[in-house]
User: What shape does this take?
Amino acid sequence: MLVAAPRSACRRGARGTRGERSRSRGPGGLLRQLLRSGRRPTSRPLPPRSESIHDGRPTYLVATCVALVLAGAVARAEEQSEIQRALASVKDSSTVELSTVGRKTRRIHTRPVWFVVDGDKIVVQSGKDGQTDWYRNLAASPQLTVRTPGYVFTATASIVTDPARVEQIHDLFMKKYHTAWLLSFVGSSLGRGRPVELTPDKVAIR
Assistant: This one.
């Protein structure tokens, strides 16, 4: 003889079944099922990080720095081209004017001197065994202004001490200034002074 179970028991059983199903569907239930089955849980890939407005900032800064460096390099190249054209234009002139800063007075002193152009430099010489005012001024403060027909250079002076370079500069002066070359046969030291190389930094048209 079959006996029907009470409705309350059925309802409890149904609720229990649904509860077990809901628990098995949750994260904990899924983990328990995997552990029972012996399978290892697989990790899901993380969703892609949402990009913000600040993500491109490092790239923008790098691009800006590169652009500034390139602009500076182009400007320097153009300045050097202008200097080279100016030097080629004035190399056959007889004299240039050197404006130096007085080592004691701090005033501007201007003096015309012979010169030669050698590559990207203006080369001058001091007589009197380096005892001229402009030479001693440059030894104390190497910044100066060089005025030539048509151009004004700002330059930095460097006193030449290498014997081979000194002799080379003397030869350049002898080739340009024939008077010095002729007087050298009678023992004159004209054109054989203490050389100074002037490296132009900027040039302007007078």
Summary: The longest helix spans residues 57-90. The longest strand covers residues 194-205. Confidence is low (pLDDT under 50) at residues 1-5, 12-17.
